[in-house]
Amino acid sequence: MLVETNQLSFSYVEGKPFQLPEVQLREREQLLILGQSGSGKTTLLHIIGGLLAPKAGSVHISGQSLYALKGAALDKFRGQHIGIIFQKPHILAPLTVMENLQMANFFGKRDGKRNETLLKDLDIWHKRDQKVTTLSEGEAQRVSIARALANSPQLILADEPTASLDDANAARVIALLQEQAEKHHAALIVVTHDQRVKQHISTQLEVGGTR
Ligand SMILES: Nc1ncnc2c1ncn2[C@@H]1O[C@H](COP(=O)(O)OP(=O)(O)OP(=O)(O)O)[C@@H](O)[C@H]1O
């Protein structure tokens, strides 16, 4: 099993604790996590991604208990095994497109030999020396995807990747994520409230049980 969670719960300091559903994912599988706004989708994705320690429960990635790792060891594990596409792009504005990928390579201690192919596949190779502030929203999002894939992760996590896109671009971005995951033998988890994504990823999990 690539991802295995067990009895996860979380509480923000001010809020009530909430339980999160079990996630089990094999190598190369794709999973869609659905749920209304505020149901805990981003929280669950951040816990699986090693960014937010749960209050109780565990996450195993390829048999490694994620939160048994601390500090630099957790950062390195995350950098090497997990690629995250955030809801709000976290690309670094003062850097160029290529430098954003090299930064990911640096933190994951990887050589970046895939960077050129990735930028070509995502049709932003010609923008590699431009600062990300000069890019369109769609281009910046493709940089986020390229950066998430730059260290050949086994697991790709995408948070609301289609939220601000029209139908044609939403379909394109989902297809791109699926293609890249398949090409690089990675598993993919997409979190969304966007019903349009349902038709593309057949294995689905509901957070919050409100629907
Ligand atoms: N930093 C925080 N401090 C306090 N409460 C928070 C914080 N972040 C999220 N919450 C609360 O925790 C709950 C789950 O939030 P989360 O962001 O995981 O939901 P979501 O399903 O991803 O929502 P959306 O689709 O709107 O992004 C919500 O009730 C939210 O208000």
UniProtKB/TrEMBL annotation:
Provide the alphabetized UniProt keywords: ATP-binding, Nucleotide-binding
Give a GO cellular-component term. plasma membrane
Annotated ranges, domain ABC transporter: 3-209
SUPFAM superfamilies noted in UniProt: P-loop containing nucleoside triphosphate hydrolases
Q: Name one GO molecular function term.
A: ATP hydrolysis activity
Could you tell me which Pfam families the record lists for this protein?
ABC_tran
Q: Which PANTHER family match?
A: IMPORT ATP-BINDING PROTEIN (PTHR24220)
Its recorded name reads: ABC transporter
Origin species, per record, is Nitritalea halalkaliphila LW7
Organism lineage reads as: Bacteria, Pseudomonadati, Bacteroidota, Cytophagia, Cytophagales
